């Protein structure tokens, strides 16, 4: 397991850095609220530029303070960008609702843009504490995916309903909107089913990997080659599963199970444990595999 670097106690920076960063962030929130409540494009642009400058300055000031924190602090703080992403999308959704019922096209475009931004990789999942965060990742990635799909679908319905279509085609428009909503329900169900199936596969293959390593460490010398081959096959199967995205089958879009760097580190550890049985690499590999299984336990569904 990787940990965040922590500076020596004597090198801890002054607390003013934290307060300065918090003040800048609070100013960004106020500017965002003012911009969302205004209809002036010039004010919106100025607010966006000033907010970007404040965020960059806040990052530069707070970074030395952040580096000096403990692991617990690092685990909390590194999740702040994801929290900010969720809050930003929520503010855009609230702003879209404010345009109803007078401007359904603007509301629809805003909701569709939430989905486009989500698909385009607007969120950045923190790569630290990969195993500790896996249990939550299996939950909120599916929830965010479904929420983005709902926003996109509702926005699309608003856009379809506002098209200049003659009244005689109203039943066809209604049927189209209904089909889009039904498609949303089916797709949302598949997202949650995929997460449960992935968690089940991860638990199964991590367990096989553990058993292979355990049998290899206790097996007779005469069976060593056969047990090593079985362990290598078990790692290949687990590695393929770890390469999947959590909420989508598209490898270009989605959230990793664990970061690629963490997966490569686990692969190197497992390879060393297969080569040198019974040593520290064996214990470390077993510990990480156990953390992987623990994170997936709540999502296991053998009939998904």
Automatic annotation (TrEMBL):
Transmembrane segments: 16-36, 42-62, 74-97, 103-121, 142-160, 172-193
Keyword Membrane annotated: yes
Keyword list, A-Z: Membrane, Transmembrane, Transmembrane helix
Protein name per its UniProtKB record: Uncharacterized protein
Organism: Streptomyces mooreae
Source organism phylogeny: Bacteria, Bacillati, Actinomycetota, Actinomycetes, Kitasatosporales
